[in-house]
Design goal:
The complex is a heterodimer of chains A (155) and B (866).
Chain A: E1 9-16, E2 19-24, E3 28-33, E4 47-53, E5 56-62, H1 63-66, E6 79-85, E7 88-94, E8 96-103, E9 108-110, H2 117-122, E10 123-128, E11 133-137, H3 139-142, H4 147-154
Parallel strand pairs in A: 2-11, 5-7
Antiparallel strand pairs in A: 1-2, 1-8, 3-6, 4-5, 6-7, 9-10, 10-11
Chain B: H1 3-17, H2 19-29, H3 33-52, H4 56-73, H5 81-104, H6 113-126, H7 141-149, H8 177-180, H9 207-233, H10 240-260, E1 262-264, H11 266-269, H12 272-283, E2 287-292, E3 297-299, H13 300-321, H14 325-330, E4 337-346, E5 349-356, H15 363-372, H16 378-382, H17 386-390, H18 414-423, E6 427-433, E7 437-445, E8 450-458, E9 461-466, E10 470-476, E11 483-486, E12 489-494, E13 497-503, H19 504-507, E14 522-529, E15 532-538, E16 540-548, E17 562-567, E18 573-577, H20 579-586, E19 595-596, E20 606-612, E21 620-623, E22 629-634, E23 638-641, E24 644-649, E25 652-658, E26 670-678, E27 681-686, E28 689-696, E29 709-715, E30 718-723, H21 725-732, E31 746-750, H22 754-766, E32 770-774, H23 777-786, E33 792-796, H24 804-813, E34 822-826, H25 831-840, E35 844-847, H26 851-862
Parallel strand pairs in B: 2-4, 9-18, 13-15, 21-30, 25-27, 31-32, 31-33, 33-34, 34-35
Antiparallel strand pairs in B: 1-3, 4-5, 5-7, 6-7, 8-9, 8-16, 10-14, 11-12, 12-13, 13-19, 14-15, 17-18, 20-21, 20-28, 22-26, 23-24, 24-25, 26-27, 29-30
Helix pairs in contact in B: 1-3, 1-5, 2-3, 2-5, 2-12, 3-4, 3-7, 4-5, 4-6, 5-6, 9-10, 12-13, 13-18
The chains are: A mainly beta (155), B alpha+beta (866).
Chain lengths: 155, 866
């Protein structure tokens, strides 16, 4: 994804394990209440399973697991942010979904090099909001599973 | 790009695609007038259209090629390999230009002078000044556009042309037709009477539209299934009747759409003759490629997926399989190597075979390579059968080629071929004979989109197993068929064979492995894997459902256990198990795991199949031994032929007989059937529900004579009707027992139980014996007095009056029967009993109801113990 740094960005805010995150709006196809997710045995870590979105099969990625956070309570009601990647739909499971924010380039800073682990892997930028910081997530990297992603994850 | 250019590109690409094959034929068989005319016409059309569209490069190349072809066509020059090579090069150039046109809309830059010179040289060498005959091409331009539109025989197969009738279009088959066909663009009101007619039966539809239609039809099937599921729970619904209609129409629609996507398999191998020719020239080998069954049709998606594997296999055959002419001569083979390519349909699958008469796989080298790559240990290799060793070539990272040549061995190997084919639910196998050649067999499903699948559950999760791979379903029950343990590995004894089992839950990491020795309940789905059968152990089994196979997301593609996923009628998503993948995961198929086991003597207890039929609540029993297998047929597979229900099943037509009143299941429903088999002939008895299989001592009590039933027995504490198989089989197929001829071996059955006689006689008759039955030894001996003669006697041991041993003694004492082999039929077949029987002089000693054993024993006894 090419970054256009000098333009305002529209991000959908979501909360994962108490952190405020954002996902670029243009990639989002749907936001739904997360209902039945069918487990996929032997799926890579981070894949929560598959769900039925109006007849389409959507692969669900658990953001908590992807970002190295403890799993959510079993009965917690979570939200599913459906994004598209190469004509395939994926659902990003978040604890809750907030507003859409239009953020000017001035608030945007690069990810501090001190950020470690999964966060460094999946964050592209940090936005300074008035009251808190918002971590912008890279959907492509969140959905990069497979051999190379595993190697990167071990860094 | 404007429409005219797009249309031109689509048609020309299609027409040119076929010419390679035609040219290779031309070169081999010389100037077949029809072929020549066809090639000439196609190139001529390209030239004309190029002139019309002001495509100068294309026009120049086509023109030069046309000149040469014109000489060939008119017999003014002999067809030479050099000439054909030049024309092939011209076709490549034309293709290159067409590709460029497709990408940019303008002719790509390029210099064709050398090519044109080569074509002209070939023409000059062959004929003298014949070029003038074809000069006035300026006059033709507009016509050619419509001339290409008429599909020319095999040209239809190349892309998505819809053909309702085999429009082989003989109309443009004469050399002049192209010139007489009227340009529809220019004068649409006056189409040529003869030339334009066939075009009306087919139209061009883009692949995208067809694929979308297929997706929509598939979705419709899903919605229909969902509706049917809801309707099933409501007994009286006003929607039932229209829903039935909707269901039928949906099925028809699905079938219709599927048909539009069917293409002959020759579309996938159309390029091969050219490839083989070029490879032969490159490698200095002479190769003959024979193709048969090219008109076998399959779904275009499947077709696309086998194109590359096929090409790869054929390249391999040319490069590694076939020897150089010198080596062939030394080996006493004809110098010309042969590759056979054949396709045929077998049930719901297409079988493609690629065989060559080359040197065969070097198994020693395969062994060495497998060892080197760490694919197997020396000990494992030593114990492996040759066919298993040969299969190593399908393993990842395995290539036997010593040197990587330009032809094959470019990093992709047979493992890629295998994974491509397995991805679409197919299998690939290989047979090789040193010095004689190699045969590779590919089995692929007809269509990928919709398959019938068995839904099973393990560890609380449901999975679908493609029905085509399920051989049978076995219910596990304490006291019935049970799982046994070889150390930590569960196995199942099934008809004398030891079946390796894979416990699905633990294999998929859903639950902890069961402790060895633990009793296991549930079901075993017996699957046919590449290297033998194995069973998947599951907790429960649901219906068979038609499912739409959807590929999993790219991030899940590495999961070997699954071939896709699907949405069930209730909206839930389940994963589709890949039997080949599971076998690989669990290590089955590394060797030949299916083990033979010593046959186990049965006890007096008999395996009895319990079912309900004809709407009656009373269970019905039949000895399992007389039933070949149990099937659950999808309702849609049951048709009515000649007023009788019939099912097309696994490529065979099977008459179906209902036991009592019968309600046809809906197309989505399923019909439990007891299948009886006699050689290739089979017949199904349709029942309402299969209840159980259990071991029971059947004691037949007489009851009111009801046709079709032998009487009543107590099974599992309940009064149960006992089925008279003979009655129903005769009802379904009067000829079932009617083939006893004078040549059939004559058999005397001495058996006091009427029930056993009723069971055994039909089974023996069906197996081709002429059976005479007696109720006791006295009756049998009376027959001897009457002068009756038999080839074999099958006698019960425990009988009132004279028992089996006494009868045998009496027969052996003297008289015409003293040499007749006697087989003991008994409820007790423990080792001690067998030993006693042998001592007494019985040829064989077998357990009742074990149809296969009885038949085997008889065959052996009559064949002189062979």
């Amino acid at each position: 994804m090419t970054m256009v740094a000098d333009e305002a960005r529209m991000l959908l805010t979501l909360e994962v394990g108490g952190r405020l995150c954002g996902v670029p709006v243009p990639r989002i196809r749907d936001v739904i209440r997360c209902e039945r997710i069918a487990r996929v045995p032997m799926a890579p870590a981070g894949v929560a399973g598959v769900l039925n979105l109006r007849g389409r099969i959507v692969t669900a990625v658990d953001l908590r697991e992807r970002l190295g956070l403890p799993p959510a309570d079993a009965d917690a009601q979570r939200m599913s942010v459906v994004v598209e990647q190469q004509a395939e739909l994926y659902s990003l499971l978040a604890d809750s979904v907030g507003d859409v924010l239009t953020l000017p380039p001035e608030t945007r800073t690069d990810v501090p090099t001190t950020l470690r682990g999964a966060w460094r892997e999946h964050a592209v930028a940090v936005h300074r909001l008035d009251d808190q910081l918002l971590i912008e997530l890279d959907t492509d990297r969140l959905l990069a599973f497979g051999a190379c992603a595993v190697l990167e994850g071990r860094r | 790009m404007d429409d005219l250019l797009a249309e031109f590109l689509a048609e020309t690409t299609e027409a040119v695609a076929d010419l390679d094959t035609a040219l290779v034929v031309l070169e081999r068989q010389g100037g077949d007038a029809e072929t020549l005319a066809r090639i000439f016409r196609a190139v001529h059309s390209v030239k004309g259209a190029a002139g019309f569209l002001a495509l100068h490069r294309l026009g120049a190349v086509a023109h030069a090629a046309e000149n040469l072809l014109g000489l060939y066509r008119d017999g003014e020059a002999p067809v030479t390999p050099a000439g054909v090579t030049a024309v092939l090069a011209a076709l490549d150039a034309i293709r290159g230009i067409l590709n460029g046109l497709g990408e940019t809309g303008v002719e790509p830059e390029g210099d064709d002078t050398a090519l044109v010179a080569a074509l002209d040289a070939a023409a000059a060498a062959g004929g003298d000044g014949a070029r003038t005959a074809l000069e006035p091409d300026i006059a033709l331009p507009a016509m050619e556009v419509s001339a290409i539109e008429l599909p020319e025989g095999p040209a239809e197969v190349a892309a998505a042309t819809l053909v309702e009738e085999p429009a082989v279009a003989p109309a443009p088959a004469t050399a002049t037709a192209a010139a007489t066909a009227t340009a529809s663009a220019a004068t649409p009101a006056a189409p040529a009477a003869s030339g334009a007619a066939p075009a009306a039966t087919s139209i061009r539809v883009s692949l995208g539209v067809l694929d979308d239609l297929m997706t929509l039809a598939s979705e419709l099937v899903l919605v229909r299934n969902q509706l049917l599921q809801i309707a099933r729970s409501e007994t009286t619904s006003p929607f039932a009747a229209p829903l039935g209609r909707l269901s039928r129409i949906t099925s028809d629609l699905q079938e219709g759409v599927m048909k539009t996507r069917m293409q002959p398999v020759s579309a996938a191998w159309g390029a091969l003759p050219r490839i083989v020719r070029d490879l032969g020239a490159e490698l200095g080998k002479r190769i003959d490629l024979a193709m048969s069954g090219g008109d076998t049709e399959l779904d275009r998606q499947v077709l696309e997926s086998i194109r590359d594997p096929l090409t790869h296999i054929v390249r391999n055959s040319c490069d590694h399989g076939l020897e150089a002419p010198e080596a062939r001569r030394l080996a006493g083979k004809p110098e010309i190597g042969r590759i056979n390519l054949s396709a045929r349909q077998e049930g719901g699958r297409i079988v493609i075979e690629i065989s060559d008469d080359g040197r065969g796989l070097d198994l020693a080298r395969v062994r060495a390579r497998a060892l080197e790559r760490g694919l197997a240990t020396e000990a494992e290799l030593a114990g492996m059968r040759e066919e298993d060793v040969a299969r190593f070539v399908f393993r990842a990272g395995f290539s036997t080629a010593e040197a990587i040549t330009a032809v094959s061995g470019r990093g992709v190997g047979m493992d890629v071929v295998r994974s491509n084919i397995e991805r679409i639910g197919g299998t690939v196998d290989l047979q090789t004979f040193t010095g004689q050649g190699t045969t590779i067999t590919i089995r692929i499903p007809l269509t990928l989109a919709i398959v019938s699948a068995l839904v099973v559950q393990s560890a609380g999760e449901r999975f679908a197993i493609p029905q085509a791979t399920v051989v049978e379903l076995v219910g596990l029950k304490a006291g019935g068929i049970m799982v046994e343990w070889l150390d930590a590995a569960p196995v199942l004894r099934l008809r004398g064979q030891l079946l390796p089992l894979v416990a699905l839950g633990p294999q998929l990491g859903l639950e902890a492995p069961r402790e060895a020795g633990q009793a296991v309940e549930g079901f075993v789905a017996v699957l046919q894997g590449d290297s033998g059968r194995y069973g998947i152990l599951v907790d429960s089994v649901f219906d068979t459902e038609e499912i739409v196979v959807k590929p999993v997301a790219p991030i899940l593609r590495d999961l070997t256990a699954f071939s896709g996923n699907t949405i069930l009628g209730d909206g839930s998503i389940i994963m589709i198990l890949d039997p080949a993948g599971i076998a690989r995961l669990s290590g089955i198929g590394a060797g030949s795991a299916e083990a033979q086991e010593e046959r186990v003597a049965d006890t007096a207890r008999t395996q009895v199949l319990l079912f309900r039929a004809g709407g009656s609540a009373t269970p019905i029993a039949v000895p399992l031994g007389v039933v070949a297998r149990l099937e659950s047929l999808p309702g849609a597979s049951i048709e009515t032929a000649g007023g009788r229900p019939t099912a097309q099943h696994r490529g065979q037509l099977m008459p179906l007989v209902p036991i009592g009143p019968w309600n046809a299941p809906g197309p989505q429903g399923s019909q439990p059937v007891l299948v009886f088999q006699d050689g290739a002939r089979q017949l199904g008895l349709m029942v309402d529900e299969i209840i159980d299989v259990l071991e029971e001592t059947l004691v037949l009590r007489p009851s009111d004579a009801v046709p079709g039933f032998l009487g009543v027995a107590i099974v599992a504490g309940r009064a149960t009707d006992v089925l008279d198989c003979a009655y129903w089989l005769r009802l379904g197929d009067p000829g079932w027992f009617g083939k006893s001829q004078g040549t059939a071996p004559r058999l005397l059955l001495v058996e006091d139980s009427g029930f056993f006689r009723q069971i055994v006689v039909p089974a023996l008759t069906a197996a081709g014996y002429e059976v005479t039955a007696c109720a006791d030894a006295a009756q049998a001996l009376a027959l001897r007095e009457e002068g009756a003669m038999f080839d074999c006697v099958l006698s019960d041991i425990e009988m009132p009056g004279m028992d089996g041993f006494a009868l045998l003694q009496e027969m052996r004492r003297d008289g015409p029967w003293s040499r007749i082999p006697v087989v003991a039929l008994t409820g007790k077949a423990g080792p001690a009993d067998v030993a006693r029987g042998r001592v007494a002089g019985f040829a064989q000693y077998v357990a009742k109801f074990d149809r296969d054993h009885v038949l085997e024993a008889l065959a052996r006894a009559i064949g002189g113990g062979a």
